[in-house]
Amino acid sequence: MVTERSARESPELRAAEQVVLVVDDDEDLADTCRYWLDGERFAVETAYGGKEALRRLDDTVDVVLLDRRMPNVTGDDVLEEIRERGLDCRVAMMTAVEPDTDIVDMPFDAYLVKPVSESEVKETVEELLVRSGFGSEVREYFALESTEAALDSRDVEELREPEALSDLRGRLEAVRAEHEEAIRNREAQLDRLNRTNELLRDVDRALIDARTRDEIEQTVCDVVASAHEAAFVLRRTAAGTLRCTAAAGHGLDPAGVDIDFVDEAFDIDGTVEDGFAFDDISEAHRAAVVGDAAALDTVSALCVAVDYRETMYGALVVYDETDGFDEESAALFSDLGATVGNGINATQSKQLLNGDSVVELEFQVGGDAGVLAALSATLDCRFSLDGVSRLDDGLTCFVSVAGASGTDAVAAAIDADDVSQARVVSDGDGESVVELRTDAEAVLSTAIDHGASVERLTLSEGSGSLALHVAADADHGALVEAVTTAAPGVSVVAKREVERSVQSPDSFRRALDSKLTDRQRTVLETSLVSGYFEWPRGSTAEEVADSLGISPPTLHEHLRTAERKLIETYFDELSPAPADD
Protein backbone atom coordinates (compact mmCIF):
# COMPACT_ATOMS: atom_id res chain seq x y z
CA MET A 1 0.00 0.00 0.00
CA VAL A 2 1.20 3.53 -0.77
CA THR A 3 0.90 5.98 2.09
CA GLU A 4 0.40 9.74 2.08
CA ARG A 5 1.89 11.60 5.02
CA SER A 6 1.01 15.24 5.49
CA ALA A 7 0.76 17.59 8.44
CA ARG A 8 -2.03 20.10 8.91
CA GLU A 9 -1.44 22.64 6.18
CA SER A 10 -1.19 26.26 6.85
CA PRO A 11 -3.52 28.45 4.76
CA GLU A 12 -2.01 29.09 1.37
CA LEU A 13 -2.74 32.79 1.65
CA ARG A 14 -0.34 33.30 4.55
CA ALA A 15 1.66 36.49 4.12
CA ALA A 16 5.16 35.07 4.06
CA GLU A 17 6.70 38.56 4.20
CA GLN A 18 5.36 39.04 7.76
CA VAL A 19 7.85 37.69 10.30
CA VAL A 20 7.37 37.15 14.04
CA LEU A 21 10.52 36.69 16.14
CA VAL A 22 10.18 34.99 19.55
CA VAL A 23 13.07 35.89 21.87
CA ASP A 24 13.50 33.95 25.13
CA ASP A 25 16.43 32.20 26.81
CA ASP A 26 13.93 29.54 27.94
CA GLU A 27 14.16 27.43 24.79
CA ASP A 28 11.14 25.30 25.67
CA LEU A 29 8.93 28.39 26.06
CA ALA A 30 10.25 29.95 22.86
CA ASP A 31 9.59 26.71 20.98
CA THR A 32 6.12 26.46 22.53
CA CYS A 33 5.24 29.96 21.33
CA ARG A 34 6.52 29.06 17.89
CA TYR A 35 4.37 25.92 17.96
CA TRP A 36 1.33 27.99 18.94
CA LEU A 37 1.90 30.49 16.16
CA ASP A 38 3.00 28.06 13.45
CA GLY A 39 0.41 27.73 10.71
CA GLU A 40 -0.90 31.28 11.12
CA ARG A 41 -0.66 33.96 8.41
CA PHE A 42 2.98 34.75 9.12
CA ALA A 43 6.40 33.17 9.45
CA VAL A 44 7.72 32.47 12.96
CA GLU A 45 11.37 32.37 14.07
CA THR A 46 13.05 31.95 17.46
CA ALA A 47 16.12 33.43 19.11
CA TYR A 48 17.31 31.80 22.34
CA GLY A 49 18.69 34.90 24.00
CA GLY A 50 19.44 38.59 23.54
CA LYS A 51 22.68 38.17 21.59
CA GLU A 52 21.05 35.83 19.08
CA ALA A 53 18.12 38.22 18.75
CA LEU A 54 20.37 41.18 17.93
CA ARG A 55 22.09 39.12 15.24
CA ARG A 56 18.75 38.22 13.66
CA LEU A 57 16.96 41.55 13.93
CA ASP A 58 16.64 43.55 10.72
CA ASP A 59 13.93 45.36 8.80
CA THR A 60 12.29 42.07 7.72
CA VAL A 61 10.99 41.42 11.27
CA ASP A 62 7.47 42.74 11.90
CA VAL A 63 6.72 41.65 15.48
CA VAL A 64 9.02 40.67 18.35
CA LEU A 65 7.88 38.73 21.44
CA LEU A 66 10.63 39.71 23.85
CA ASP A 67 11.50 38.30 27.26
CA ARG A 68 12.84 40.94 29.67
CA ARG A 69 14.83 38.77 32.06
CA MET A 70 17.66 37.22 30.06
CA PRO A 71 21.35 36.84 30.97
CA ASN A 72 24.07 39.02 29.40
CA VAL A 73 21.83 40.92 26.97
CA THR A 74 18.46 41.63 28.61
CA GLY A 75 15.16 42.23 26.90
CA ASP A 76 15.41 45.90 27.89
CA ASP A 77 18.78 46.04 26.09
CA VAL A 78 17.30 44.44 22.97
CA LEU A 79 14.34 46.85 22.99
CA GLU A 80 16.67 49.84 23.27
CA GLU A 81 18.80 48.54 20.40
CA ILE A 82 15.71 47.99 18.23
CA ARG A 83 14.67 51.61 18.63
CA GLU A 84 18.22 52.96 18.23
CA ARG A 85 18.54 51.09 14.92
CA GLY A 86 15.26 52.63 13.79
CA LEU A 87 13.69 49.21 13.08
CA ASP A 88 9.98 49.67 12.42
CA CYS A 89 8.68 46.61 14.22
CA ARG A 90 6.14 46.14 17.00
CA VAL A 91 7.47 44.74 20.29
CA ALA A 92 5.56 42.85 22.97
CA MET A 93 7.44 42.34 26.23
CA MET A 94 6.66 38.84 27.47
CA THR A 95 8.05 38.41 30.94
CA ALA A 96 7.56 37.22 34.49
CA VAL A 97 8.62 40.68 35.77
CA GLU A 98 5.61 42.39 37.35
CA PRO A 99 5.00 45.73 35.60
CA ASP A 100 5.92 48.87 37.49
CA THR A 101 6.23 52.54 36.65
CA ASP A 102 9.68 51.94 35.17
CA ILE A 103 7.88 50.70 32.04
CA VAL A 104 6.09 54.02 31.41
CA ASP A 105 8.82 55.38 29.14
CA MET A 106 9.83 52.04 27.58
CA PRO A 107 9.07 52.02 23.83
CA PHE A 108 7.20 48.71 23.62
CA ASP A 109 3.74 48.11 22.13
CA ALA A 110 2.31 45.47 24.50
CA TYR A 111 3.19 43.88 27.84
CA LEU A 112 2.37 40.25 28.64
CA VAL A 113 3.00 38.78 32.09
CA LYS A 114 4.03 35.12 32.24
CA PRO A 115 2.65 32.53 32.32
CA VAL A 116 1.07 33.34 28.99
CA SER A 117 -1.65 31.37 27.24
CA GLU A 118 -1.89 30.39 23.60
CA SER A 119 -4.83 32.73 23.03
CA GLU A 120 -2.96 35.68 24.62
CA VAL A 121 0.06 35.15 22.39
CA LYS A 122 -1.98 34.72 19.21
CA GLU A 123 -4.25 37.69 19.87
CA THR A 124 -1.30 39.94 20.72
CA VAL A 125 0.63 39.04 17.56
CA GLU A 126 -2.44 39.42 15.36
CA GLU A 127 -3.26 42.84 16.82
CA LEU A 128 0.32 44.10 16.59
CA LEU A 129 0.55 43.09 12.94
CA VAL A 130 -2.55 45.17 12.25
CA ARG A 131 -1.23 48.08 14.33
CA SER A 132 1.85 48.14 12.07
CA GLY A 133 -0.32 49.74 9.41
CA PHE A 134 -1.49 52.56 11.68
CA GLY A 135 -0.04 56.07 11.69
CA SER A 136 2.70 56.79 14.24
CA GLU A 137 0.45 58.91 16.48
CA VAL A 138 -2.25 56.24 16.58
CA ARG A 139 0.37 53.55 17.26
CA GLU A 140 1.63 55.66 20.14
CA TYR A 141 -1.87 55.84 21.58
CA PHE A 142 -2.36 52.09 21.55
CA ALA A 143 1.13 51.54 22.99
CA LEU A 144 0.33 53.93 25.86
CA GLU A 145 -3.00 52.21 26.35
CA SER A 146 -1.22 48.83 26.61
CA THR A 147 1.15 50.29 29.22
CA GLU A 148 -1.77 51.66 31.23
CA ALA A 149 -3.55 48.29 31.08
CA ALA A 150 -0.41 46.56 32.38
CA LEU A 151 -0.09 48.98 35.31
CA ASP A 152 -3.81 48.74 36.06
CA SER A 153 -3.20 45.11 37.00
CA ARG A 154 -1.28 46.37 40.07
CA ASP A 155 -2.59 48.17 43.13
CA VAL A 156 -1.64 51.83 42.90
CA GLU A 157 -0.13 51.69 46.41
CA GLU A 158 2.31 49.01 45.24
CA LEU A 159 3.74 51.14 42.42
CA ARG A 160 7.07 52.87 42.96
CA GLU A 161 5.84 56.18 41.58
CA PRO A 162 2.01 56.27 41.57
CA GLU A 163 2.05 59.76 40.06
CA ALA A 164 3.66 58.31 36.92
CA LEU A 165 0.43 56.43 36.23
CA SER A 166 -1.52 59.69 36.50
CA ASP A 167 0.89 61.36 34.07
CA LEU A 168 0.48 58.43 31.68
CA ARG A 169 -3.30 58.80 31.73
CA GLY A 170 -2.93 62.48 31.01
CA ARG A 171 -0.78 61.71 27.97
CA LEU A 172 -3.38 59.20 26.79
CA GLU A 173 -6.18 61.75 27.02
CA ALA A 174 -4.12 64.34 25.17
CA VAL A 175 -3.21 62.00 22.29
CA ARG A 176 -6.81 60.82 21.97
CA ALA A 177 -8.15 64.38 21.94
CA GLU A 178 -5.75 65.29 19.13
CA HIS A 179 -6.45 62.20 17.00
CA GLU A 180 -9.97 61.26 18.09
CA GLU A 181 -11.41 60.30 14.70
CA ALA A 182 -8.40 58.27 13.54
CA ILE A 183 -8.22 56.42 16.87
CA ARG A 184 -11.95 55.67 16.80
CA ASN A 185 -11.68 54.25 13.28
CA ARG A 186 -8.74 52.07 14.24
CA GLU A 187 -10.53 50.85 17.37
CA ALA A 188 -13.42 49.77 15.16
CA GLN A 189 -10.94 48.00 12.88
CA LEU A 190 -9.35 46.15 15.81
CA ASP A 191 -12.79 45.24 17.12
CA ARG A 192 -13.66 43.68 13.75
CA LEU A 193 -10.34 41.86 13.79
CA ASN A 194 -10.95 40.47 17.28
CA ARG A 195 -14.47 39.38 16.37
CA THR A 196 -13.23 37.67 13.23
CA ASN A 197 -10.38 35.95 15.08
CA GLU A 198 -12.80 34.72 17.74
CA LEU A 199 -14.99 33.44 14.94
CA LEU A 200 -12.05 31.54 13.45
CA ARG A 201 -11.32 29.95 16.83
CA ASP A 202 -14.98 28.99 17.23
CA VAL A 203 -14.91 27.36 13.79
CA ASP A 204 -11.70 25.48 14.64
CA ARG A 205 -13.29 24.11 17.82
CA ALA A 206 -16.48 23.17 15.99
CA LEU A 207 -14.62 21.38 13.19
CA ILE A 208 -13.04 19.01 15.71
CA ASP A 209 -16.43 17.36 16.35
CA ALA A 210 -17.65 17.35 12.72
CA ARG A 211 -17.47 13.90 11.10
CA THR A 212 -18.78 14.50 7.59
CA ARG A 213 -18.55 17.18 4.96
CA ASP A 214 -22.23 18.03 5.42
CA GLU A 215 -21.64 18.55 9.16
CA ILE A 216 -18.61 20.75 8.48
CA GLU A 217 -20.46 22.98 6.03
CA GLN A 218 -23.51 23.41 8.25
CA THR A 219 -21.39 23.97 11.36
CA VAL A 220 -19.42 26.71 9.62
CA CYS A 221 -22.61 28.42 8.48
CA ASP A 222 -24.09 28.26 11.99
CA VAL A 223 -20.96 29.70 13.62
CA VAL A 224 -20.48 32.44 11.02
CA ALA A 225 -24.16 33.45 11.05
CA SER A 226 -24.07 33.74 14.85
CA ALA A 227 -21.39 36.43 14.52
CA HIS A 228 -22.70 38.09 11.35
CA GLU A 229 -26.08 38.24 9.60
CA ALA A 230 -26.17 35.11 7.45
CA ALA A 231 -23.93 32.67 5.60
CA PHE A 232 -24.15 29.86 3.10
CA VAL A 233 -21.80 27.36 1.50
CA LEU A 234 -21.69 26.59 -2.20
CA ARG A 235 -20.38 23.19 -3.24
CA ARG A 236 -18.72 22.71 -6.59
CA THR A 237 -20.13 19.70 -8.38
CA ALA A 238 -18.41 17.34 -10.79
CA ALA A 239 -19.95 19.32 -13.65
CA GLY A 240 -18.32 22.50 -12.38
CA THR A 241 -21.60 24.10 -11.30
CA LEU A 242 -22.44 25.44 -7.86
CA ARG A 243 -25.19 24.36 -5.51
CA CYS A 244 -26.01 25.57 -2.02
CA THR A 245 -25.53 22.75 0.50
CA ALA A 246 -25.72 24.60 3.84
CA ALA A 247 -27.06 27.92 5.08
CA ALA A 248 -27.83 29.74 8.31
CA GLY A 249 -29.23 33.09 9.41
CA HIS A 250 -32.53 34.83 8.67
CA GLY A 251 -34.24 31.51 8.03
CA LEU A 252 -32.18 30.75 4.94
CA ASP A 253 -33.01 27.47 3.24
CA PRO A 254 -30.28 26.00 1.00
CA ALA A 255 -32.88 25.09 -1.60
CA GLY A 256 -34.06 28.69 -1.88
CA VAL A 257 -30.81 30.63 -1.81
CA ASP A 258 -30.23 32.83 -4.85
CA ILE A 259 -26.62 32.27 -5.93
CA ASP A 260 -26.63 33.81 -9.40
CA PHE A 261 -24.74 36.91 -8.27
CA VAL A 262 -21.83 34.75 -7.04
CA ASP A 263 -20.97 33.63 -10.56
CA GLU A 264 -19.01 36.84 -11.14
CA ALA A 265 -16.62 35.85 -8.32
CA PHE A 266 -15.52 32.74 -10.18
CA ASP A 267 -12.99 32.92 -12.99
CA ILE A 268 -12.75 30.56 -15.92
CA ASP A 269 -10.71 28.08 -13.89
CA GLY A 270 -13.45 27.75 -11.28
CA THR A 271 -11.45 29.49 -8.54
CA VAL A 272 -12.58 32.33 -6.34
CA GLU A 273 -10.86 35.67 -6.20
CA ASP A 274 -9.39 36.27 -2.74
CA GLY A 275 -11.95 37.99 -0.57
CA PHE A 276 -14.29 38.99 -3.41
CA ALA A 277 -16.62 41.54 -1.78
CA PHE A 278 -20.13 42.52 -2.84
CA ASP A 279 -20.70 45.87 -1.14
CA ASP A 280 -23.47 47.06 -3.41
CA ILE A 281 -26.22 44.47 -3.23
CA SER A 282 -29.55 45.31 -4.78
CA GLU A 283 -32.70 45.41 -2.68
CA ALA A 284 -34.10 42.56 -4.78
CA HIS A 285 -31.14 40.36 -4.01
CA ARG A 286 -31.20 41.41 -0.37
CA ALA A 287 -34.81 40.31 -0.21
CA ALA A 288 -33.83 36.97 -1.74
CA VAL A 289 -31.13 36.54 0.87
CA VAL A 290 -32.85 37.60 4.09
CA GLY A 291 -36.44 36.95 3.09
CA ASP A 292 -37.36 40.53 3.98
CA ALA A 293 -35.46 43.46 2.48
CA ALA A 294 -36.53 45.65 5.38
CA ALA A 295 -34.82 43.34 7.87
CA LEU A 296 -31.47 44.96 7.12
CA ASP A 297 -30.81 48.53 6.12
CA THR A 298 -27.68 47.67 4.16
CA VAL A 299 -25.97 44.40 3.46
CA SER A 300 -22.41 43.65 2.43
CA ALA A 301 -21.33 40.22 1.30
CA LEU A 302 -17.97 38.51 1.09
CA CYS A 303 -17.27 35.44 -1.04
CA VAL A 304 -14.16 33.35 -0.28
CA ALA A 305 -12.88 30.09 -1.67
CA VAL A 306 -13.25 26.84 0.25
CA ASP A 307 -10.17 25.03 -1.00
CA TYR A 308 -7.25 22.81 -0.09
CA ARG A 309 -4.02 23.17 -2.05
CA GLU A 310 -5.19 23.01 -5.67
CA THR A 311 -8.55 21.40 -4.87
CA MET A 312 -11.55 23.71 -5.14
CA TYR A 313 -14.40 22.52 -2.92
CA GLY A 314 -16.66 25.55 -3.34
CA ALA A 315 -17.19 28.90 -1.67
CA LEU A 316 -18.37 30.49 1.57
CA VAL A 317 -20.56 33.59 1.31
CA VAL A 318 -20.94 35.79 4.40
CA TYR A 319 -23.44 38.62 4.89
CA ASP A 320 -23.11 41.47 7.34
CA GLU A 321 -24.87 44.77 7.97
CA THR A 322 -21.75 46.91 7.73
CA ASP A 323 -20.12 49.44 5.49
CA GLY A 324 -18.15 46.63 3.91
CA PHE A 325 -15.41 44.13 4.67
CA ASP A 326 -11.94 45.62 5.09
CA GLU A 327 -8.74 43.98 3.84
CA GLU A 328 -7.90 42.39 7.21
CA SER A 329 -11.28 40.71 7.61
CA ALA A 330 -11.24 39.60 3.97
CA ALA A 331 -7.80 38.01 4.47
CA LEU A 332 -8.93 36.30 7.66
CA PHE A 333 -12.06 34.94 6.01
CA SER A 334 -9.88 33.66 3.19
CA ASP A 335 -7.93 31.77 5.84
CA LEU A 336 -11.23 30.47 7.16
CA GLY A 337 -12.06 29.14 3.71
CA ALA A 338 -8.69 27.37 3.62
CA THR A 339 -9.32 25.98 7.12
CA VAL A 340 -12.70 24.62 6.06
CA GLY A 341 -11.15 23.11 2.92
CA ASN A 342 -8.48 21.48 5.04
CA GLY A 343 -11.17 20.14 7.38
CA ILE A 344 -13.13 18.66 4.48
CA ASN A 345 -10.01 17.01 3.12
CA ALA A 346 -9.08 15.64 6.55
CA THR A 347 -12.60 14.32 7.13
CA GLN A 348 -12.63 12.50 3.81
CA SER A 349 -9.22 11.04 4.62
CA LYS A 350 -10.51 9.80 8.00
CA GLN A 351 -13.52 8.23 6.33
CA LEU A 352 -11.14 6.52 3.93
CA LEU A 353 -9.05 5.14 6.81
CA ASN A 354 -11.90 4.13 9.11
CA GLY A 355 -14.66 3.02 6.77
CA ASP A 356 -15.66 -0.61 6.50
CA SER A 357 -15.42 -0.30 2.74
CA VAL A 358 -13.76 2.01 0.22
CA VAL A 359 -14.12 2.58 -3.48
CA GLU A 360 -11.22 1.72 -5.75
CA LEU A 361 -10.85 3.71 -8.94
CA GLU A 362 -8.49 2.26 -11.52
CA PHE A 363 -6.93 4.39 -14.24
CA GLN A 364 -4.91 3.64 -17.35
CA VAL A 365 -1.77 5.80 -17.42
CA GLY A 366 0.09 6.72 -20.59
CA GLY A 367 3.63 7.94 -21.22
CA ASP A 368 2.69 11.64 -21.02
CA ALA A 369 1.12 11.34 -17.56
CA GLY A 370 4.17 12.48 -15.60
CA VAL A 371 7.86 12.19 -14.91
CA LEU A 372 7.66 8.61 -13.55
CA ALA A 373 6.03 7.33 -16.74
CA ALA A 374 8.58 9.20 -18.83
CA LEU A 375 11.51 7.76 -16.86
CA SER A 376 10.20 4.21 -17.12
CA ALA A 377 9.99 4.68 -20.88
CA THR A 378 13.48 6.18 -21.09
CA LEU A 379 15.00 3.35 -19.06
CA ASP A 380 12.82 0.67 -20.70
CA CYS A 381 12.10 -0.75 -17.24
CA ARG A 382 9.36 -1.35 -14.69
CA PHE A 383 8.48 1.15 -11.93
CA SER A 384 6.35 0.39 -8.86
CA LEU A 385 5.46 3.20 -6.47
CA ASP A 386 6.14 2.19 -2.85
CA GLY A 387 5.30 5.47 -1.11
CA VAL A 388 4.61 9.12 -1.75
CA SER A 389 4.74 12.23 0.46
CA ARG A 390 2.97 15.46 -0.44
CA LEU A 391 5.18 18.54 -0.03
CA ASP A 392 4.45 22.21 -0.58
CA ASP A 393 6.56 22.23 -3.72
CA GLY A 394 5.67 18.80 -5.12
CA LEU A 395 6.02 15.14 -4.18
CA THR A 396 8.65 12.84 -2.79
CA CYS A 397 8.24 9.40 -4.39
CA PHE A 398 9.85 6.12 -3.36
CA VAL A 399 9.99 3.84 -6.38
CA SER A 400 11.04 0.21 -6.85
CA VAL A 401 12.90 -0.23 -10.13
CA ALA A 402 13.16 -3.54 -12.01
CA GLY A 403 15.09 -3.91 -15.25
CA ALA A 404 17.51 -1.07 -14.53
CA SER A 405 19.91 -0.26 -11.73
CA GLY A 406 19.10 2.33 -9.09
CA THR A 407 22.21 4.26 -10.16
CA ASP A 408 20.98 4.43 -13.77
CA ALA A 409 17.51 5.49 -12.60
CA VAL A 410 18.94 8.32 -10.49
CA ALA A 411 21.20 9.44 -13.34
CA ALA A 412 18.22 9.59 -15.72
CA ALA A 413 16.14 11.41 -13.12
CA ILE A 414 18.83 14.04 -12.56
CA ASP A 415 18.92 14.69 -16.30
CA ALA A 416 15.15 15.26 -16.29
CA ASP A 417 14.07 18.89 -15.92
CA ASP A 418 11.23 18.07 -13.53
CA VAL A 419 13.19 16.19 -10.84
CA SER A 420 14.80 18.42 -8.20
CA GLN A 421 16.38 15.66 -6.09
CA ALA A 422 17.19 11.97 -6.56
CA ARG A 423 19.07 9.35 -4.60
CA VAL A 424 19.48 5.58 -4.37
CA VAL A 425 17.87 4.11 -1.27
CA SER A 426 18.98 0.55 -2.04
CA ASP A 427 20.57 -0.99 -5.12
CA GLY A 428 20.03 -4.75 -5.44
CA ASP A 429 20.68 -7.23 -8.21
CA GLY A 430 17.03 -7.81 -9.10
CA GLU A 431 15.32 -4.67 -7.84
CA SER A 432 16.38 -1.27 -6.55
CA VAL A 433 14.63 1.48 -4.61
CA VAL A 434 15.14 5.17 -5.44
CA GLU A 435 13.79 8.40 -3.97
CA LEU A 436 12.72 11.16 -6.37
CA ARG A 437 11.44 14.65 -5.60
CA THR A 438 9.38 16.21 -8.37
CA ASP A 439 6.76 18.84 -9.08
CA ALA A 440 5.68 17.18 -12.33
CA GLU A 441 3.35 14.44 -11.08
CA ALA A 442 0.07 16.30 -11.47
CA VAL A 443 -2.00 13.11 -11.47
CA LEU A 444 -0.71 11.94 -8.08
CA SER A 445 -0.83 15.45 -6.58
CA THR A 446 -4.40 15.93 -7.74
CA ALA A 447 -5.48 12.58 -6.34
CA ILE A 448 -3.92 13.23 -2.93
CA ASP A 449 -5.33 16.76 -2.75
CA HIS A 450 -8.80 15.30 -3.37
CA GLY A 451 -8.41 13.03 -0.34
CA ALA A 452 -7.59 9.83 -2.24
CA SER A 453 -5.09 7.22 -1.15
CA VAL A 454 -2.67 6.11 -3.85
CA GLU A 455 -2.98 2.35 -3.49
CA ARG A 456 -0.64 1.37 -6.31
CA LEU A 457 1.04 2.70 -9.43
CA THR A 458 2.86 0.34 -11.77
CA LEU A 459 4.53 1.47 -14.97
CA SER A 460 6.24 -0.60 -17.63
CA GLU A 461 8.10 1.05 -20.47
CA GLY A 462 6.07 4.27 -20.11
CA SER A 463 2.53 3.04 -19.46
CA GLY A 464 0.67 1.23 -16.72
CA SER A 465 -2.12 1.47 -14.20
CA LEU A 466 -2.98 3.60 -11.17
CA ALA A 467 -5.34 2.51 -8.38
CA LEU A 468 -6.83 5.07 -5.98
CA HIS A 469 -8.86 4.40 -2.86
CA VAL A 470 -11.49 6.95 -1.86
CA ALA A 471 -14.18 7.09 0.81
CA ALA A 472 -17.44 5.47 -0.17
CA ASP A 473 -19.42 8.73 0.14
CA ALA A 474 -16.81 10.95 -1.56
CA ASP A 475 -17.59 12.75 -4.82
CA HIS A 476 -16.17 10.08 -7.13
CA GLY A 477 -17.22 11.91 -10.27
CA ALA A 478 -15.33 15.04 -9.30
CA LEU A 479 -12.23 13.01 -8.50
CA VAL A 480 -12.34 11.12 -11.82
CA GLU A 481 -12.74 14.40 -13.69
CA ALA A 482 -9.86 16.02 -11.82
CA VAL A 483 -7.47 13.09 -12.28
CA THR A 484 -8.22 12.45 -15.95
CA THR A 485 -7.77 16.14 -16.80
CA ALA A 486 -4.63 16.63 -14.70
CA ALA A 487 -2.40 15.21 -17.46
CA PRO A 488 -2.82 13.72 -20.95
CA GLY A 489 -3.06 9.99 -21.43
CA VAL A 490 -5.04 9.20 -18.25
CA SER A 491 -8.40 7.43 -18.42
CA VAL A 492 -10.59 5.64 -15.90
CA VAL A 493 -11.10 1.92 -16.57
CA ALA A 494 -12.85 0.52 -13.50
CA LYS A 495 -14.68 1.34 -10.30
CA ARG A 496 -15.18 -1.25 -7.60
CA GLU A 497 -16.05 -1.49 -3.94
CA VAL A 498 -13.33 -2.85 -1.67
CA GLU A 499 -14.23 -4.38 1.68
CA ARG A 500 -12.02 -3.90 4.71
CA SER A 501 -11.38 -6.77 7.07
CA VAL A 502 -12.73 -5.87 10.51
CA GLN A 503 -10.13 -6.09 13.24
CA SER A 504 -10.64 -5.41 16.95
CA PRO A 505 -8.15 -3.37 19.02
CA ASP A 506 -7.30 -6.57 20.92
CA SER A 507 -6.31 -8.41 17.76
CA PHE A 508 -4.17 -5.46 16.63
CA ARG A 509 -2.46 -5.45 20.02
CA ARG A 510 -1.84 -9.19 19.86
CA ALA A 511 -0.32 -8.80 16.40
CA LEU A 512 1.97 -6.09 17.68
CA ASP A 513 2.87 -7.96 20.88
CA SER A 514 3.96 -10.93 18.81
CA LYS A 515 6.56 -8.71 17.09
CA LEU A 516 7.89 -6.72 20.07
CA THR A 517 10.45 -8.06 22.50
CA ASP A 518 9.91 -7.49 26.22
CA ARG A 519 12.66 -4.88 26.27
CA GLN A 520 11.22 -3.00 23.28
CA ARG A 521 7.78 -2.96 24.90
CA THR A 522 9.25 -1.67 28.16
CA VAL A 523 11.20 1.06 26.38
CA LEU A 524 8.10 2.22 24.50
CA GLU A 525 5.92 2.28 27.63
CA THR A 526 8.53 4.03 29.78
CA SER A 527 9.13 6.64 27.09
CA LEU A 528 5.38 7.27 26.84
CA VAL A 529 4.62 7.64 30.56
CA SER A 530 7.72 9.78 31.15
CA GLY A 531 6.56 12.36 28.59
CA TYR A 532 9.34 11.69 26.08
CA PHE A 533 6.88 11.87 23.16
CA GLU A 534 5.29 15.14 24.38
CA TRP A 535 6.28 18.58 23.17
CA PRO A 536 7.91 20.17 25.04
CA ARG A 537 9.34 16.86 26.28
CA GLY A 538 8.69 15.84 29.86
CA SER A 539 11.87 13.77 29.87
CA THR A 540 14.98 13.78 27.71
CA ALA A 541 16.39 10.65 26.07
CA GLU A 542 19.19 10.69 28.65
CA GLU A 543 16.67 10.76 31.53
CA VAL A 544 14.59 7.91 30.07
CA ALA A 545 17.74 5.84 29.44
CA ASP A 546 18.91 6.47 33.00
CA SER A 547 15.56 5.31 34.44
CA LEU A 548 15.90 2.08 32.42
CA GLY A 549 19.55 1.58 33.31
CA ILE A 550 20.72 1.64 29.69
CA SER A 551 22.77 4.04 27.56
CA PRO A 552 21.08 6.65 25.32
CA PRO A 553 22.33 4.95 22.11
CA THR A 554 20.79 1.67 23.29
CA LEU A 555 17.53 3.48 24.07
CA HIS A 556 17.40 4.96 20.56
CA GLU A 557 18.11 1.56 19.01
CA HIS A 558 15.23 -0.06 20.92
CA LEU A 559 12.92 2.88 20.14
CA ARG A 560 13.65 2.83 16.41
CA THR A 561 13.09 -0.92 16.18
CA ALA A 562 9.86 -0.80 18.24
CA GLU A 563 8.50 2.18 16.31
CA ARG A 564 9.24 0.45 13.00
CA LYS A 565 7.32 -2.65 14.12
CA LEU A 566 4.42 -0.52 15.33
CA ILE A 567 4.23 1.38 12.05
CA GLU A 568 4.56 -1.79 9.96
CA THR A 569 1.73 -3.44 11.90
CA TYR A 570 -0.47 -0.38 11.47
CA PHE A 571 0.01 -0.09 7.73
CA ASP A 572 -0.28 -3.85 7.22
CA GLU A 573 -3.76 -3.65 8.73
CA LEU A 574 -4.78 -0.81 6.41
CA SER A 575 -4.50 -2.95 3.30
CA PRO A 576 -8.02 -3.89 2.18
CA ALA A 577 -8.98 -6.76 -0.04
CA PRO A 578 -11.17 -6.40 -3.12
CA ALA A 579 -14.80 -7.39 -2.57
CA ASP A 580 -16.12 -10.50 -4.26
CA ASP A 581 -17.87 -9.68 -7.51
Automatic annotation (TrEMBL):
Coiled-coil intervals, chain numbering: 165-203
Residues covered by the Response regulatory domain: 19-129
Origin species: Haloferax chudinovii
Upper lineage: Archaea, Methanobacteriati, Methanobacteriota, Stenosarchaea group, Halobacteria
The name this protein goes by in its record: Bacterio-opsin activator domain-containing protein
Signal sequence annotation: none
Entry keyword annotation includes Phosphoprotein: yes
Highest rank taxon of the organism: Archaea
Pfam families linked to this entry: BAT, HalX, HTH_10, Response_reg
PANTHER family in the cross-refs: DIMETHYL SULFOXIDE REDUCTASE TRANSCRIPTIONAL ACTIVATOR
InterPro entries membership: BAT_GAF/HTH-assoc (IPR031803), CheY-like_superfamily (IPR011006), GAF-like_dom_sf (IPR029016), HalX_domain (IPR013971), HTH_bacterioopsin (IPR007050), RNA_pol_sigma_r3/r4-like (IPR013324), Sig_transdc_resp-reg_receiver (IPR001789), WH-like_DNA-bd_sf (IPR036388)
Residue(s) carrying 4-aspartylphosphate: D67
SUPFAM superfamilies given in the database record: CheY-like, GAF domain-like, Sigma3 and sigma4 domains of RNA polymerase sigma factors
Keyword set, alphabetical order: Coiled coil, Phosphoprotein, Transcription, Transcription regulation
